[in-house]
Amino acid sequence: MKKHNFSAGPCILPQEVLVKASEALINFDGLDLSLIEISHRSPNFVAVIEKARHLVLELLNLEGKGYQVLFLQGGASSQFLLSAYNLMKDQNGKAAYLNTGTWSSKAIKEAKLFGELAEVASSKDKNFNYIPKDYIIPSDVDYFHTTSNNTIYGTQMHSFPEFNGINVCDMSSDIFSRSLDFSKFDLIYAGAQKNMGPAGTTLVVVKESILGNTGRTIPSMLDYQVHIAKDSMFNTPPVFAVYTSMLTLEWLKDLGGIKAIEKINNQKAQLLYQEIDRNPLFTGVSATEDRSKMNATFTLNNESHSDLFDTIWEEAGINGLNGHRSVGGYRASMYNALTIESVEVLVNCMQELERKA
Amino acid sequence: MKKHNFSAGPCILPQEVLVKASEALINFDGLDLSLIEISHRSPNFVAVIEKARHLVLELLNLEGKGYQVLFLQGGASSQFLLSAYNLMKDQNGKAAYLNTGTWSSKAIKEAKLFGELAEVASSKDKNFNYIPKDYIIPSDVDYFHTTSNNTIYGTQMHSFPEFNGINVCDMSSDIFSRSLDFSKFDLIYAGAQKNMGPAGTTLVVVKESILGNTGRTIPSMLDYQVHIAKDSMFNTPPVFAVYTSMLTLEWLKDLGGIKAIEKINNQKAQLLYQEIDRNPLFTGVSATEDRSKMNATFTLNNESHSDLFDTIWEEAGINGLNGHRSVGGYRASMYNALTIESVEVLVNCMQELERKA
Ligand SMILES: Cc1ncc(COP(=O)(O)O)c(C=O)c1O
Ligand SMILES: Cc1ncc(COP(=O)(O)O)c(C=O)c1O
Ligand SMILES: [Mg+2]
Ligand SMILES: [Mg+2]
Ligand SMILES: [Mg+2]
Ligand SMILES: [Mg+2]
Fold it and tell me: Where on this chain does pyridoxal 5'-phosphate bind (chains A, B) (predicted)?
């Protein structure tokens, strides 16, 4: 049965990417060898990682602007640590963080090991259902850290404050989904497993000039400069995850890039939020102006409808709609590879509930 | 054309594993969803990682002995760092390392950031072509670190010194290949990409009682105890690499486990080393008593034969035979999934050279 995959991550990937990845596991590049049994230093794989790197810069419009692209391991969770390790000064290190959810909070926790932290604002008072707006970023911090999209709570930063220093952003759950002036950020990181590819690699896009200024000794595997010097091959890279990410980036480019996908993502989000608002049985969780176009969180106004609703959407082939335990209700993740048809199926389920309840 | 894959890693995996992994990318567990687009917290994937964990303990004969199994990211190179971070005391930390090659040297380099290091012996004087034997391990060190198999130089520890303290071993390139009393080790780590699976996950097998005694604050992602508490799901695991490792472990178990594969590995190694010794055109690189059964390094006695030899083995469908740049010559990696037929093909090529040269 055709599935409509609303999983929050790992999540839906383009079908043609899955088919190509599946084929490469048997015979990659016509070598009569599997993708995963050749040397990562073979010309065939080096071409893959170079292409992936190039596609990232091209899609983000960051070519020739002093940025380096890395494909690392360890997830975005490791970047909570690496960003602080590589950017916070050894002496009197200080950084500012905007706390918009679980992931920001975890990033803050790891960075505290390296210096003083200024939490410039937090939306914890309302279970992170909005993005704080009026706050002051101390001018003397080593960097300012934000989370562009809050996967769990369904909020998204639709604008970013102007900060003159180093801007760091965890874009794990909305990278490649919308147009932004990415050159306003000095360090962007993202676990692959939303819009870039399968779990197992982490994208780091970093302006090279911000590195090497902390006075800190950094272990090799945690040092961005070490990985840059070796083109992400300081050690064995996660070959499969990088290859499948490259395929996904290629798919996005062929589709017309970020501008094209943004249009579709806007349509999907509008369709679903419109129904959440219109349908008297449902209410959105997050503040209207901060709604995420990637993860829509909503609840049933009457809990007693949940069994019927769950039966309806499960029978329609929908998958991954349950909300995160810290929010409850439902979460519809509408990443790049999800089609508008899948959103229409969900909207139909919501309307079916309205008729039947 | 049928390939004979002697790559040093990533390397050959069992054909049936590749086929199953390829199928799971299209439809996993009959879910009508790809393995890489479902939640890592779904019952289907949780069952995979639990099974993989269990298979590791079973194959290593470590069940019920206080060991924990982790599937992490970052490669064995990250474990150079994590082993020291988790085991070296914060105050007056001291560790002993046996230096048997590039990987040991890199492990030593990372550990030096955490305390005093005693290099108990080194074979660097002879480009690591042997395993040092007579050395003293200081009794007051926090742990003693060895590298069981030296992938680059083709040496292997056929016995390990008795050390009463904590024993740490990098088994990246020979784990699951031979019977050992694994319970003599307190911490074993291995990048997956030799005998366990594809690049992208790292196996850690640790005796839980050795943890938590350093007095050091460890960042979450570097803390074995954090990962143990979350069953390797503190953050998103590398789903594909864990799944394919599970398939490979299952294949090994079905084949009869380590005892069965060891017999085959012994036959393969004997066949090749016999030819290296017999054939007047070739010489083995490493000391006879320290020869690795996983990676056989050898050279041509007459460099002028190399073009002809390269043509012969390439035409026979052999892949990945070139030696590492720091050794030169040839390296035949004979990991678990390589069949004896492939070794016979190589031996035939060596004899063909003898006839034609
Ligand atoms: C915004 C955000 N940051 C960080 C993470 C953690 O990523 P990982 O599991 O790759 O460490 C997630 C995971 O969903 C996320 O959504
Ligand atoms: C014995 C040994 N240790 C460590 C490593 C490094 O592993 P990784 O590339 O997974 O970091 C290797 C890689 O080949 C190895 O053979
Ligand atoms: Mg969040
Ligand atoms: Mg409503
Ligand atoms: Mg070595
Ligand atoms: Mg000889």
Answer: 76-77, 103, 151, 170, 193, 235-236
